[in-house]
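Subject: Metal-dependent carboxypeptidase structure
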Amino acid sequence: MNIFDTLMAYERDTQALGQIAGRLGWDQETMMPRGAGAQRGEEMAAIEAVLHARRSSPQVAEWLAAAQAPDVVGEAQLREIKRSYERSVKVPADLARRLARVTSEAQGKWAAARAEEDVAAFLPVLQEVVALKREEGQALAAGGDVYDAMVEDYEQGTSAGEIAAIFDAMRPGLVDLRARVLDKPAPQALQGRFPEGAQMKLTRKLAKTFGYDMSHGRVDKAVHPFSSGSGLDVRITTRTSEEDPFNCFYSTIHEVGHGAYEQGISRDYLLTPLGRGVSMGVHESQSRIYENQIGRSAAFTSWLYGEMRDTFGEFGISDADAFYKAVNTVHKGYIRTEADELQYNLHIMLRFDLERALMAGDLEVGDLEAAWNDRFEADFGYRVHKPSNGCLQDVHWSVGLFGYFPTYSLGNVYAGCLNEKMRAELPGLDAELESGNTSSATNWLRQNLQQHGGLRSPQETIALAAGADPSPAPLMHYLEEKFTGLYDL
């Protein structure tokens, strides 16, 4: 083999070990015995030590210096291996190992504290996580902005300042539209109870309807829905509430968007740096367009209305039009994952500002709950009355995902751009969605975006698929048009 081939063989083994680490994380949130948390922390630390050593090996630097890429795909492979190497050598091996151990243990402690509504039980381990992440961020930043270095892990080529500018541009329009909507009467609401077994049966049908390949995936339950894996093994989770089946169905569609992206990447890139979603913002563009622009459209909800009636019988909604309004109700609420499209980004803006302050040292962990509650009341107009509705609702900080949250809103922005282009190229899409056929939309996304994996930068990936550079304008236009129509503004 030549040097390039030798490096790629080495990288495939590294990628395979990374997939094993991901499977341990999946198991921890779905099937692991409750008492296994401490041992799992040691297991995660051990595999992270192996991965860090491989990613930061001096041999990788020698191969990178000597390797000649055979084509543009090879050039992209070298670019991503180099990016990983340069990041890894900045982080001390012991720090990487400690982070893996502490975040694995913190995940279980967060779940227990959330169930008991006990912030105090979680704060000591969160303090450890924050201290370690600050240390890692300082190592990665090498004198630059710590939070920018963290964002780079999830949305390369984007800074916190650029994200803040996008949020500042979006906030006035979102707040104004929300005020006009909340002045209107609420739509009809679901009535009755929706058995868990029936929900899970329908949610698996929904996953298949959106093109999720169950021969290379599975649907399980977790406290916080997520997707895991890439290539030939891509798993998703959801959650159920007997009072609110939409929680289950739209969590599933959202995670299917993530899963379908990973399943749609060219098999030529399997177990290489290009064989996964290029960034979390682009990943979120897929989950959000599946969930919202497709899954919450009037056309698709007319089909889902019939499926729900067949599954549950009468549930208090008179017709498909009323069901469309119920699916898209703008309502007061605390939980980000249950938020309507209009208010979702306001939840992200709150978290973005708080975690920037945490990483900068301007906000200490002991003051987080009060800061969250004060900010929530200022942004939404009512108080948080229990931690599971406030600072304990998300898993992200417990597992050290600082810099991740803003990618949810970037994903919404990207989805707006993609939806505008997709609708222009598929004028008959609604007629298909009315029959539960999403294939034109999902095939368009696979062809124009998903198959390319990490071949290009996030911004190039969106620009090539959408036909224009990313901008919040299409999203804001879509929201204004949709909710003006829904609420007769």
